[in-house]
């Protein structure tokens, strides 16, 4: 083989090694920093140019609501902030166990910590014998407690709310 071929093979091998190293760093970075959580409560307003005509949006037709009850469970504080779980007719199990609906990676929550369930057109929260307790609006849950929409529920380091 010629000197040029050997040099090109060395450079190609070096480039391949750098691609491998950079890919490994990207994977490690993604694992360390996780998913970026965006605050959806903040409204994005587009900047308006001076003197530009302002387009007024046409009013949207009224949405048909199927019920006045909550439609989702939202984590508002804690490591999983921004997580949304759509609600149906089944219970939502909260805890550290992989079998839970919302798996909390939290040292202050039990493996099967609490459950939120519908009954008679209303949602209830029930503590499942956890060590640190479940709190609804800073009151410890001792028995199944009605859960109004927008009331904070503290489970370990996480705070959850039912929202429409």
Give short descriptive properties of this protein.
alpha+beta; six-stranded antiparallel β-sheet; five-stranded mixed β-sheet; 19% helix; 11 strands
Quaternary structure classification: single chain
Radius of gyration, rounded?
A: 25 Å
Report the mean per-residue pLDDT as an integer: 83
Low-confidence stretches: none
Count all strands and give the number: 11
Beta-sheet strand percentage?
25-35%
Strand order of the largest sheet: 2-1-11-10-7-8
Question: Cα distance, first to last residue?
Answer: 72 Å
Note the overall shape.
Answer: elongated
In DSSP terms, counting alpha (H) and pi (I) runs of 4 or more, how many helices? 1
Largest sheet: 6 strands, antiparallel
Order of secondary-structure elements: HEEEEEEEEEEE
Fraction of helical residues: 10-25%
Structural class: alpha+beta
Question: What do you see in this structure?
Answer:
This protein is of the alpha+beta class. Helix content is about 20%, strand content about 25%. The protein is built from one helix and eleven strands. The chain has one helix at about 5-35; strands at about 70-75, 85, 90-95, 100-105, 115-120, 120-125, 135, 140, 145, 155, 160-164. A six-stranded antiparallel sheet has the order 2-1-11-10-7-8, with no helix packed on it. The chain has a five-stranded mixed sheet with strand order 4-3-5-6-9, with no helix packed on it. Strand 7 (about 135) and strand 8 form a beta hairpin. The longest helix is centred in the N-terminal third of the chain and has 31 residues, at about 5-35. The mean pLDDT is about 85.
